[in-house]
């Protein structure tokens, strides 16, 4: 259990930077769990503890991404990750990504709280103009989350993703600063 480095807080959770120690908890298990990886690009290749530690360490070196652990307030449990990535400082855009690993916390509104926190940070602190995300057409949870975060559907990349023997459409969403605030 890691309690340090609280960065942003909401009612039920807080965000903190990922730490190498996170790779020794349930985090590694999530990446290798087909149910957790159902609606995202993870789960195609096995993830090792070594590669996870390297990812965490590299996340600190880039000025084009902010990656946070989502920590549930009551038990200080690491339940997922959230990021702004592919930050383009010239065009003031970033890609939003979220990964809810602890299944017992699914459906409790914590993904919305975390998403709202990081979008507020992106628009109010980083002064981004546009934040976007993409999700598979069969990932209804992420589609609902994007809409709840005031994102509009901007397009569909037809059969852009091949996963589990099927081609899936990639639905793209985005929200502008003046639409969110």
Automatic annotation (TrEMBL):
The family database entries (SUPFAM superfamilies) matched by this protein are listed as: Acyl-CoA N-acyltransferases (Nat)
Q: Give the matching InterPro entries.
A: Acyl_CoA_acyltransferase, GNAT_dom
Tagged with keyword Transferase: yes
Q: Does the keyword Transferase apply?
A: yes
Sequence ranges assigned to domain N-acetyltransferase in this UniProt record: 13-174
Recorded superkingdom: Bacteria
Gene3D superfamilies assigned to the protein according to its UniProt record, in alphabetical order: 3.40.630.30
Name of the protein described by the UniProt record: Acetyltransferase (GNAT) domain protein
